[in-house]
Write a structure and sequence with these properties.
Structural class: mainly alpha
Order of helices and strands: HHHHHHH
Shape: flat
């Protein structure tokens, strides 16, 4: 610490002397060891940590893009080596795969809409949609809706019963005729 202060003081004095002499101040140069030491100290203090994390993420994303581009280039090279018949067959397979993916997505969306309607009929909120939905199986989805409805209703009933606890009277406040008498009121109020 004392060395740093001495070094700063010396640099300040040198700066003052150079300005007085009319000389330009040369930029500070570091050796490789000094640079690495300063970098280690900065990392130990946590400087630049967020930037380094961002760089790692960027590098990972860049590597992924590079890998995908390489795969696409290899695919294109194989495609160019194919005969016209093979090219047509490959394109047909790719088109069929894309078409099937779109059909599956459309069917799933239609099933989700149908499931939402069934859930509304059973008075269930949409938050259970992904829990009850079984893709490509409407019967299993309906069974899941029935199970969730039963569980949901049971939990609601339990919560309602927990809030509506009633207390029964400790003593009889009516006589045999069903009338409430003055004596009974005094007993109930513990009056003499």
């Amino acid at each position: 610490m004392a060395e740093e202060q001495d070094l700063q003081q010396k640099q300040t004095e040198d700066l003052g002397n150079q300005e007085d002499n009319g000389q330009d101040i040369p930029p500070k140069t570091y050796t490789q060891e000094e640079f690495e030491q300063a970098l280690k100290e900065a990392e130990a203090k946590g400087y630049g940590k967020g930037r380094f994390d961002t760089n790692a993420k960027w590098e990972k994303t860049a590597k992924e893009r590079e890998r995908l581009a390489k795969e696409e280039a290899e695919k294109q090279a194989r495609f160019e080596k194919m005969s016209e018949l093979e090219k047509a067959q490959t394109q047909a397979k790719e088109s069929m795969a894309e078409l099937q993916a779109l059909k599956d997505e459309l069917a799933l969306n239609a099933q989700k809409d149908e499931t939402r309607k069934m859930m509304k009929e059973k008075d269930l909120p949409d938050v259970f949609l992904n829990s009850v939905l079984v893709p490509k199986d409407a019967e299993a989805t309906m069974n899941n809706i029935i199970e969730v409805k039963a569980l949901f209703d049971a939990e609601v009933q339990k919560a309602v019963e927990g809030r509506i606890k009633t207390h029964t009277p400790k003593q009889n406040t009516v006589d045999d005729d069903g009338a409430f008498t003055l004596d009974m009121a005094k007993k109930a109020l513990k009056l003499k």
